[in-house]
Each structure stands twice: as structure tokens, then as C-alpha cells.
Amino acid sequence: MQYTFLLYSNPADFADMGPEDWAKSKAAYQAYIAALQEAGVFVATDWLQPAYTATTISLKDGEARVHDGPFADTKETLGGSFTVEVPDLDTAMDWARKCPAAQTGKVEIRASAMNG
């Protein structure tokens, strides 16, 4: 079964990070990716540009409406994702707990509707 971990954080929490802090964060994610790969459960990952760079499109009465910015204005934003292939939700939760994003934000776990 494939599960996607949606990584949410508050960008304000990273505003004061210096180069050393960013290097530590990058190393933590690299170690996490290596552990997922070593366990044979890694499928994909992606990091997203900041939410303020988003463009949102909606259709109302057949007319496209384009908005700068994210769909919802919230403190926590979606910053990236991991997709893993594991036998069950309990195993997915074990891996989500190990994700560096769980230390500073939230990790939402969603099962794939395509692989079930």
C-alpha cells in the first residue's frame, strides 16, 4: 500500500534559521531519505516552493479564476511530501514519526486511492 506524508510547518518557525541550522535540517532529511531507501519503502519525495509563490485556479460558472497565493491563508503551509510503500497504516505511522518534519510541524498521512 502506498501512503503519502504531507509535511506541514509554520514558515515563521524558520525565519531565524542561519546557514548552520539549514545544513542540520538538510542532513536530517538526507538521513531520513537514506533510511527509507535502505528499508526499501521509499517511492518519492518533493519539496515545494513557499506558499506565497502559489497560484490557485478555480472554475465558477465555467469561468476560470486565477488567484495569487495558496487556496487557504493559514499559519501552517504544505512544504513537501514523501510517498512510501509499506504493508499498513501502522508501519506508515512508524515512518512518519521518524520524519524530521514531525519535530517542528505536522505530518499528515494519506493512503493512496490508486493503489489499494
TrEMBL record:
Superkingdom of source: Bacteria
Pfam families recorded: YCII
Domain YCII-related stretches: 1-110
Signal peptide (from-to): none
Annotated SUPFAM superfamilies: Dimeric alpha+beta barrel (SSF54909)
Family membership: Belongs to the YciI family.
Protein name: DGPF domain-containing protein
Gene source species: Pseudaestuariivita atlantica
